[in-house]
Amino acid sequence: MQCIVCRDKTKSFEVGVLKNLGLEVVKEYEVSTFFSLETYKAVIDSKMLNIPLVGIFYEEHQGVDGRGVIQRFLAKAMEGKENLYYYPKPNIYLQVDSVALFVLFNGHTPERLLIEIFYKEQLLPTQYRNSLHKHLAQALNFSSKRITLEGRPLSNLSKDWKFFEDNLVNTLDITTRVKEFYPAPVHINLGTINKCNLKCSFCFFFAPEYVQTHTTDFFKEYRILDEKIVYAIMDYSAKHDSIIDLVGPCEMLVDKRIPDFIRYGKDVGVRWISMTTNGLLLDEEMADRLLESRLDSLSISIDAATPETYAKSRGGNFEKLVKNVESFLAKIEKRNVNIYITLSIILQGGAQEEVEMFKQKWSAYKAVNEIYVRNLVEKNNEGMEVSHDRNFDTSCRYTCQKPWDEIHINPDGGVMPCCTMAGAIGWENKVMGNLYEESMDSIWNNLITQKMRLDLIKGDFKEWKICKDCQEWSYRSIEQENGDVVSPCIEFVKIN
């Protein structure tokens, strides 16, 4: 069978592997980046000649049986003759926006790839890129997916992909080659203080019912992360193309330094900075500072449609909150600021009956991009009644992706791998390392982190008791008809 080859010019590769499988290379394209015109040409050739496109962006090593990984992968692809891809993953539900190995047989969409190439080269503004993808999807009868498990690069080559499952090869890659495939966390969740202006009834950190059960001293005194560490995190994020979410264990706007941190992050090249707030401190001055900082996204937790319900769950001044949010949205519309706004409501404390009222109220604003109807995450064995729909399946456990994908940085400098550990900090302050003692580069692949990854793969929770009963790993499997993978939110309402 004839084929086209597109490969990373920095990776070594023996063409003889293809010949041994009966593949004749008609043309070979060497690229320095996936999103290039050379890749586009390779896709066009493959489509026009009706022959498979073999993508090799993977440094070969011998598999456990002595055969090379590329050979194992290609043999499987030739056997099934379906679009097949491989990227080392802790589980198949993790979206990784990188490329390792793929074979494209059919369903070529070079138009989508070309849009992304122009966008990556800054020849196409974001709004035009999004609009073109939307119209093209309608023309090609594509469903609009929030999550593409094959990753964004391959989703622009075709809409149909299967994952190459080889547990032995995959385990070897995600444990011994972490620096290559996961050189840094994609998501950095950053909390700079441990103080809040509310005591919400459902909050693990500040609700009186929870506070009285805390067993660590984390909230016993005010903690504030040194600005030198914050700036270092921004530099690290810019270097590794990580995104930053400014979120708990606090109300971020209690820390008046936040707009300055955001401004610095954008100045040094952090591609995306988002923040979550309860909105009560979003007064005129803070609103102006945030908009001037070039914050990319703001999520405001409103969580009610009436003062009565808000008082039950959050206990704050609902009228002040609504005024702040309305004023902030008006500023965005008046100044035509490019910021992504989400408003959320949690299904708790009577809010279940106010969802439609909430959506009707806030969907009227052009500055609102999305409304989230959120589930309430549970803290085990604390006796609190929780109301929400379950959208996860725990019947078949698989490896949690968090230690390969994200970190949570606390105001004491501690680094944790996930939101579950961060949420339990009042009861257990178990960290991978501390930024007052160790660099982020070091913590990401130190002995503690390596051991945690390996233990989770093996299902050994002796040192990670909080992981044993955690259900966060299971937010994945209930796929809606449009192909979306369900998240902890039970409903996404796209507004603008």
Automatic annotation (TrEMBL):
Q: Which InterPro entries match?
A: 4Fe4S-binding_SPASM_dom, AdoMet-like_SPASM_containing, Aldolase_TIM, Radical_SAM_PqqE_MftC-like, rSAM, rSAM_sf
Enumerate the PANTHER family for this protein.
PQQA PEPTIDE CYCLASE, RADICAL SAM DOMAIN PROTEIN
Which molecular-function annotation in GO is an example for this chain? catalytic activity
Q: Where do the Radical SAM core domain residues begin and end?
A: 180-412
Cofactor(s) of this protein: [4Fe-4S] cluster
Q: Does the keyword Iron apply?
A: yes
| PROSITE patterns linked | RADICAL_SAM
Keywords per UniProt: 4Fe-4S, Iron, Iron-sulfur, Metal-binding, S-adenosyl-L-methionine
Q: Does the keyword S-adenosyl-L-methionine apply?
A: yes
What name does UniProt use for this protein? Radical SAM core domain-containing protein
Q: Organism's domain of life?
A: Bacteria
Query: Which CDD domains does the annotation name?
Result: Radical_SAM, SPASM
Any one Pfam family here would be: Radical_SAM
